[in-house]
Specification:
- The chain has 375 residues and is of the alpha+beta class.
- Among the domains are: 141 residues, Gyrase A, domain 2 (2-Layer Sandwich), CATH 3.30.1360.120; 78 residues, Elongation Factor Tu (Ef-tu), domain 3, CATH 2.40.30.
- It has eight helices and 20 strands.
- The strands form four sheets. It has a six-stranded mixed beta sheet. It has a six-stranded antiparallel β-barrel with strand order 15-18-17-16-19-20. The protein has a five-stranded antiparallel beta sheet with strand order 6-7-8-5-9, covered by helices on one side.
- Helix 2 packs across helix 7.
- The glycine cleavage system is composed of four proteins: P, T, L and H.
Length: 375
Amino acid sequence: MTDAPPTPRRTALDARHRALGATMTDFAGWDMPLRYGSERDEHTAVRTRAGLFDLSHMGEIALTGPQAADALDHALVGRLSALAVGRARYTMICDDEGGILDDLIVYRLGDEDFLVVANAANAQVVLDALTERASGFEATVRDDRDAYALLAVQGPESAGILKSLTDADLDGLKYYAGLPGTVAGVPAMIARTGYTGEDGFELFLAPDDAERVWEALTEAGAPVGLVPCGLSCRDTLRLEAGMPLYGHELTTDTTPFDAGLGRVVKFDKPGGFVGREALEAASRRADTVTPRTLVGLVASGRRVPRAGYSVVTADGSSIGQVTSGAPAPTLGRPIAMAYVDPAYAAPGTEGVFVDIRGTREPYEVVALPFYKRER
């Protein structure tokens, strides 16, 4: 007799999602809304107006104490000790071989107070690694996954919607920064971050307050066309914006340099950090020969590439593999990200195909991202 699979966890907004008719899916052990209706309409709303997301499945981990910054410098590839209070940074946690365990956003809430946000599927791995790596530092690692609900309002109308509900200075809030405030009368940490390629905000608040804030955002956003959005359009939005997804573009078999993200690795920080020697070797390799390059592919036809499909030449020789693929509502054509042989990585390279169920479909190699919003 085999054990039954664990029951997926539910966010504080689960009843609201079901009342709205959401299609739910098991994602990283959570029951999450995939879509509420048309994922194309949700995608377009975020690009042109605003969308509201429940991201409460993400993994929040607190590091506090006099040596919290030093512990993070040791544990992660970035130099978090240089992060100013109120700012956020995109970074990664790697293993001893330089492979990526997860990509993270770290917020500095105070001199001795940091919030690490991990991907839901990797939250326990990151928590365990941080706990181990902080040993010997005067720092405390705390699992705060149950302490937060996380809502995101994204899109060109998001600032106007949120301004009507908060006392925070949103005009003065820079990209990748956060500040405490209230939203709809409840305490929140308001961050100008997101995963859509649009301007937007992520709101960290108590789970008991999630329903009230969701309702207030929905009401305030109705006149400008805000809609609830699921994970499906979040994926197409991030793909158009060229943002990597863990398990696809980023894995333990991938270093930050493989992914074209070597800039997040800071060798100039004092002391060692986990994976440093391997990453120094990866950096030297990247300076001389790149074994594979992450590129964008745009379809000539209508068939959609999927992760794992082979990228080939006209004679069928394999030159790479698709990591993510989907229809792109903004572009009106299927797109993909793929790791390919450097000889085929230059934008405009001809003779590149994706093998889709035995048929070689022509693709144009383009620079990432596919879409970039006007500033």
